[in-house]
């Protein structure tokens, strides 16, 4: 495991987990992120401060790297351009393989607007000729809890669609398994990262009710109602569209996939939502009695 692996977004929810796991596996790992102080707290002494917006700094930070774990940037109108710049910096630095954290059913006309960004990024990576692996995440189970209001309402235009949500830990385990395998088994492969079951929002609300001990209800919305109920946040139009279309993708059946890829990559089954809630009460602390 002497080849150098770089992890972007290394202080984020996925990146820091992957850095820790790689270190535990004895891999040679370099952690990349924007905040030097946060980087200093990670489980590796090799850290570089670099952002996607600074292609020159990123190129320098990737010097000597064989494999890059590219965690997608925060949602923004120019995210594809940032991703493309990061990929180009990797090519210029001599990186030989990119493992990209993508999104389930990424496509140019996906219902979920952010999923379109991931498809365009995938295409740019393909165009470089580098070896690649795409890990296409479903919705995160922790985010399902976070989407529920303190009043115990899960609201959105998801209809009666289903979502095979996955945990951050299962993604980190899967990414680590791919990154430490330098034998080419995962080259040019795409894996769907899901939980073991596809739940309706009614079932998600019921699971949150059981875990928190307080009633949680799913309230279906029309598109117009969804935009109106989110107007209070005064977020930019592109961001609200992302929020709303994330639910509409569920209604369209684009998030109902259940894959065995987590088990194939890690050797263990993905965690079920009820089990996740039982071990992570901090994710629904806002619902607990005060």
Could you please describe the fold and organization of this structure?
There is one protein chain. It contains 12 helices and 11 strands. α5 (113-128) links the parallel β5 (97-103) and β6 (131-137). With 290 residues, it is α/β, with parallel strands linked by helices. The chain has a 7-stranded parallel sheet, with helices on both faces. Strands 7-11 form a two-stranded parallel ribbon. The model has no long low-confidence stretch (mean pLDDT 96). It has helices at residues 15-24, 36-40, 55-61, 79-93, 113-128, 141-146, 168-180, 201-212, 223-229, 237-251, 261-266, 273-279, and strands at 4-7, 28-33, 47-49, 67-70, 97-103, 131-137, 153-156, 162-163, 189-193, 199-200, 217-220. α3 (55-61) packs across α4 (79-93).
């Amino acid at each position: 495991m002497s080849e150098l692996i770089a992890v972007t977004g290394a202080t984020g929810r996925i990146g820091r987990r992957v850095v820790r796991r790689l270190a535990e596996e004895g891999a040679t790992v370099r952690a990349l992120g924007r905040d030097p102080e946060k980087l200093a707290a990670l489980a590796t002494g090799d850290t570089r401060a670099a952002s996607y917006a600074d292609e020159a700094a990123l190129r320098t930070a990737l010097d000597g790297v064989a494999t890059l774990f590219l965690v997608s940037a925060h949602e923004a109108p120019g995210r594809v351009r940032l991703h493309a710049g990061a990929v180009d910096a990797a090519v210029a630095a001599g990186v030989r393989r990119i493992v990209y954290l993508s999104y389930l059913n990424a496509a140019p006309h996906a219902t979920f607007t952010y999923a379109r960004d991931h498809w365009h990024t995938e295409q740019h990576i393909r165009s470089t000729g580098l070896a690649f692996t795409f890990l296409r995440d479903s919705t995160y189970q922790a985010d399902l809890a976070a989407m529920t209001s303190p009043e115990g309402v899960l609201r959105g235009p998801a209809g009666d669609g289903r979502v095979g949500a996955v945990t951050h830990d299962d993604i980190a385990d899967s990414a680590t398994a791919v990154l430490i395998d330098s034998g080419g088994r995962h080259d040019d492969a795409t894996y769907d990262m899901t939980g073991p079951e596809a739940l309706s929002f009614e079932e998600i609300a019921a699971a949150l009710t059981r875990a928190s001990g307080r009633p949680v209800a799913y309230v279906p919305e029309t598109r117009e109602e969804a935009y109106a109920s989110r107007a209070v946040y005064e977020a930019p139009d592109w961001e609200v569209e992302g929020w709303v279309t994330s639910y509409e993708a569920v209604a369209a059946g684009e998030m109902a996939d259940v894959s065995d890829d987590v088990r194939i990559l890690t050797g263990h089954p993905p965690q079920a939502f009820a089990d996740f809630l039982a071990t992570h009460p901090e994710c629904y602390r806002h619902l607990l009695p005060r």
